[in-house]
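Retro notes (design track)

What went well: tokenization of the new backbones is finally stable.
What didn't: we kept losing track of which sequence belonged to which structure.
Fix going forward: every design gets posted as structure first, then sequence, in one message. First example under the new rule, 193 residues:
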């Protein structure tokens, strides 16, 4: 049997890149064929959390595929049926809103749209400071949609960032496995560790 093909799309929640790349390593070590995808901002922006070129090199070395980072590169994902599952990790509030409203103006949103046309699962790992505020409605919209699944999430700092949620990335593989069976991994909202 061939390896499960996973799209691994990273958006600009730069403070969670280290956890996301650890999850990518975990997928590769479990034998998944991982296709790296980066939003245009993630692909081009150096921050206090690291250089874009270092993240790109790491992903390409781990995955053995070039990073998809433009809309024209992402569009063929659908027609070619390139992936079995798409994971958006980290998924920012901005990308959540765009996915909920059907806006396709970035590489990541195009990759998701192209993938969804094949009625295959998209797994979202939320990382947003306003998830329990402006983006809560978008989480609800997406949770009600066919083929959209969430990595269970928790408040990362309930006292100081009362509306912030972050996915528990250690549950990425179990969420992918459940999504491939058409199930949302439960519980969705976890107690803060």
């Amino acid at each position: 049997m061939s390896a499960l093909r996973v799209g691994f799309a990273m958006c600009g929640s730069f403070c969670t890149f280290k956890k996301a790349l650890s999850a990518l390593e975990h997928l590769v070590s479990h034998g998944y064929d991982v296709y790296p995808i980066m939003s245009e901002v993630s692909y081009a922006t150096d921050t206090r959390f690291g250089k874009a070129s270092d993240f790109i090199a790491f992903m390409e070395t781990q995955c053995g595929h070039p990073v998809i980072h433009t809309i024209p590169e992402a569009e063929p994902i659908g027609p070619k049926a390139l992936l079995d599952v798409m994971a958006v990790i980290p998924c920012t509030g901005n990308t959540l809103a765009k996915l909920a409203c059907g806006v396709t103006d970035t590489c990541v949103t195009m990759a998701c749209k192209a993938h969804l046309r094949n009625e295959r699962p998209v797994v979202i790992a939320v990382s947003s400071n306003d998830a329990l505020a402006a983006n809560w409605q978008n989480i609800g919209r997406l949770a009600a949609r066919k083929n959209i699944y969430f990595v269970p999430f928790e408040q990362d700092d309930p006292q100081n960032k009362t509306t912030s949620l972050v996915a528990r990335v250690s549950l990425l593989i179990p969420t992918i496995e459940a999504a491939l069976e058409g199930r949302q991994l439960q519980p969705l909202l976890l107690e803060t560790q």
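Added context from the reviewer: The mean pLDDT is 95.
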